[in-house]
Amino acid sequence: MKKALILVDFQNDFIDGSLGTPEAQKIVPTVLEKLKTYPEACRFATKDTHFEDYLSTQEGKNLPVLHCQKGTLGWEIRKEAQVGYAKVFEKTTFGSLELAQYIKEEAFDAVELIGICTDICVVSNALLIKAYAPEVKVSVDASCCAGVSPEKHQAALETLRSCQVEVTNA
């Protein structure tokens, strides 16, 4: 069985930077343990990537907090989680079409997603993968995810279940 782990936006700005939360800080040890369970060739990551014009974009107008600006410390994957990845997908929006297409083209049987934010980028990427590769088994480990708030995290898990994404460790 060809299985992948996708670490979504586990970047400093989302953990303890400009958009960090206590919930994101709390999952760091669990995420690090999960990463150890997959070989590098089966680990993938996404990086939310913005530029100097962020505040003039639609997203920036709705969320006027500069974050994950390419080349900054906030944009980097958490130091302890820089464990080697088969591929890192930089994305300028919530979901990565490139990632979803890659999962389909590489004929994965299953993918597991973990990371931040459950209610924005984790759910967006899980649903894109379901749309592009409907026969791939998609799961999300809730214990390795954090949302904007605990309530939004739970709401996202319900949305994922409704869309036939398996939610584990909830």
Automatic annotation (TrEMBL):
Listed pathway(s): Cofactor biosynthesis; nicotinate biosynthesis; nicotinate from nicotinamide: step 1/1
GO molecular function, a single term: metal ion binding
Keywords: Hydrolase, Metal-binding, Pyridine nucleotide biosynthesis
Keyword Repeat: no
Highest taxon, organism lineage: Bacteria
Official protein name in the record: nicotinamidase
Species lineage: Bacteria, Bacillati, Bacillota, Bacilli, Lactobacillales
The keyword Hydrolase belongs to this UniProt entry's keyword annotation: yes
Protein family: Belongs to the isochorismatase family.
Enzyme class: hydrolase
InterPro entries, A to Z: Isochorismatase-like_dom (IPR000868), Isochorismatase-like_sf (IPR036380), Isochorismatase_Nicotinamidase (IPR052347)
Domain Isochorismatase-like stretches: 4-169
Pfam families, per the entry: Isochorismatase
Biological process annotations from GO: pyridine nucleotide biosynthetic process
